[in-house]
Amino acid sequence: MSSNTTSRADGKSGTLQVRPTNTVPAGVPVIHYDELPEPAQQLLAEREHGTSITVTPELQSLFPDDSVVVFSEYLRVEAV
Hints:
There is one protein chain. The chain is α+β, with helices and mostly antiparallel strands. Helix content is 16%, strand content 31%. The protein has one domain. The protein has helices spanning 38-46, 57-60; strands at residues 14-20, 30-32, 51-55, 67-70, 74-79. The longest helix has 9 residues, at 38-46. It starts with 13 loop residues before the first strand and ends with a strand.
């Protein structure tokens, strides 16, 4: 989805894989959607299911490694 693809002027970017999950493993950070900053909320609201999204390092830093976001379903967010 092009609105979710961003890159820095120096060309460096990160990739997040966002996919639904039915489980939350012990020790995995759980974030509620409404606790995320607006850019992160928009990214999740506009994503396509099971996609990898290229994002700026700043946006990637809003999601702890291997976190789960509570949205209308549980979403596993992993840096790849």
